[in-house]
Amino acid sequence: MIQASAPGKIILLGEHAVVYGQPAIAIPVSTLRATAQAFVSTPGDGLNIEASDLGTTSHIRLESRENEDPLSAVALLVLEKLKLPLPDLNIQVHSDIPLASGLGSGAAISAAVVRVLSSALEHKLEDEELNQIVYQVEKIYHGMPSGVDNTVIVYERPVYFIRGNPLEFLPVQGSFQFLIANTGISSSTRLVVEDVNRLYKTDPDYYGRIFDSIGELVTKGLLALQNDDAVVLGTLMSKNHHYLQQLTVSSHELDGLVEAALDAGALGAKLSGGGRGGNMIALVSQDSLVAVKEALLRAGAARVFDTILS
Ligand code: MEV
């Protein structure tokens, strides 16, 4: 048996604007992972991928390329890249990253499957080759992705990401403690990104200025991370949430959790990812961590995780 995995992610600053060329800062959440295990099967059985969390089993066929599910697309892209025939393998996928919640579950599952399949075929791929395959799958199933999710998930390092620019890992001074609260409401990033695009087209100047303002926050956020300045970073996160509200991607539940976190002493809070459900993040100090966590649960969070950036 061969095993591989990939982490979830959060966007610290800059989601949505990043689709329009602005920078974003994203960090991996290594405690939440998608895992894939490959087992050799009976000759002639072909390649099967079972994802119990998604409730899917895919029997991969080389000939059927239309309307294939994401896991079939992942497997076919790997076989095409490696120029290899269908192997006899069973791949089982498990993920503890909440699905459709802005934590990158789709990209993490794709990355884990690519890793395990290429290892089982004894052709380990370089991270950038893996990143390109996962990005291709994101493009098929997520409309117009910026590429930030697959990049932070594949490299499993904090990134300062600008679409089309060379990869930049994030220099961080000190450590920053975040709480991630799940609204329990699933949301399709694809649909939200499409909605923002429709909104943008109604008034490109106005919404373009919002994207520019978000980009400025991200640049300041980079400095705050380099200067170990949690107070400034928190303020920038909360400002970013207001811009995301103007893009109509927040929701009653997300706003409620952001308000509860701030009232309980968080240094800053915002939705994270596509929005309209999914997750929000709060930056906390050691002193406020417990109070903010309790406040988030009281305010209706389905689950609260913590993660440290250092
Ligand atoms: C989703 O995690 C981040 C978005 O900006 C979409 C993208 O960048 O592809 C909403």
Which outline best applies? globular
The percent range for helix content is 40-55%
Largest sheet: 7 strands, mixed
The string of secondary-structure elements, in order, is EEEEHEHHHEEEHHHHEEHE
Note poorly predicted spans: none
- Number of contiguous helices: 9
Bound molecules: (R)-mevalonate
Distance between the termini: 34 Å
Overview of this structure, please?
The structure is a single chain. By secondary structure, the protein is α+β, with helices and mostly antiparallel strands. Helix content is 41%, strand content 24%. Strands 1, 2, 3, 4, 5, 6 and 7 form a seven-stranded mixed β-sheet that branches. It has a four-stranded antiparallel β-sheet with strand order 9-10-8-11. α1 packs antiparallel against α3 and α8 (252-263) packs antiparallel against α9. It is globular and about 60 Å long. The mean pLDDT is 94. The structure holds (R)-mevalonate. Residues 11, 15-16, 18-19, 102, 145-146, 148-149, 189, 193, 273-274 line the site of (R)-mevalonate (MEV).
